[in-house]
Amino acid sequence: MKIVIPGGTGQVGRILDRALTRAGHEVVVLTRRPQRDREVVWDGETPGRWAREIDGSDVVINLAGRSVSCRYTEANLKAMMDSRVRSTRAVGMAVAAAARPPRVWLQMSTATVYAHRFDAANDERTGLIGGSEPGVPDYWSYSVEIAANWERAQDRAVTPQTRKVALRSAMVMSPDPGGVFDVLSWLARLGLGGPVAGGAQYVSWIHDRDFVRAVEFIVDRDDLTGPVNLAAPEPLPQRAFMRALRSAWGVPVGLPATRWMAELGAFALRSDTELLLKSRRVVPGRLLEEGFTFEHPAWPEAAADLVRRGRDGYGPSGRVSRLPLPVLSRRGGR
Hints:
By secondary structure, this protein is α/β, with parallel strands linked by helices. It has helices at residues 11-22, 51-54, 74-97, 139-156, 180-189, 208-220, 238-249, 259-268, 274-277, 285-289, 299-311, and strands at residues 2-6, 26-31, 39-41, 59-62, 104-108, 163-169, 171-173, 202-203, 205-207, 226-230, 236-237.
């Protein structure tokens, strides 16, 4: 198959590019700054020559959007919104104009669309969409609005010959340098991986190999449309999540952090506390209903596998993986 990945230069894009190329597919990445073969320039906003890659392709997986790894200032939040919505509209126009449109368009979304909650898990049918929870920072609702507008831009695209799926993804865990697992491992190995603000908030996650397998599963299933949660079936409180990660690294203790300490840490990592404090209790209802099986459903075993790969010094591509002082990588690319 020919698979086009707009914004495929970030962590998730690299994971998919490696796996799908290895599986024998022709993968083309759309990016603002092409540097390799199979990378084609686009601006993420307007029609251009890049649209020729979509015409005649089999699958489009749009990951484009400004990194969430930043301070949530008014300007950065606006950039997140604009980059996601405009790039999705541009992809939709290219699909609609194609003489031979792709049969499926997978659009990256986020589990952040669901409400901050502790009482029950969010699946696609019964989950609560966030934005009106009491007692959370006002700007958290803007993150939900970004996710909702992201999905709405895909939904409104008129593409009658192309099946559309919104991937409500949890954090994708891989041993690649600069990814979220790299950051959390760095904290754990320094003895800083304890509970944050009590640690009761849930962490939803997905192992990189299950992420790829889920994408392949969705592509192969012609009857799946609309939102699909890409998350392991066993989210867990942050304190248990970090305890399992410390255990995988052989680190006996992790210093706890108060909310204000989390603010300092997020500032140092040029990120925001929403990524640490929001309770994302998300489960893959539709995937499980359709018969998808996870190779890594539980975090302790998944963390052990990721640590083993990291310790071996190799990511899934066979490339040396270091674990430097990290900056959270973008969910998608540009």
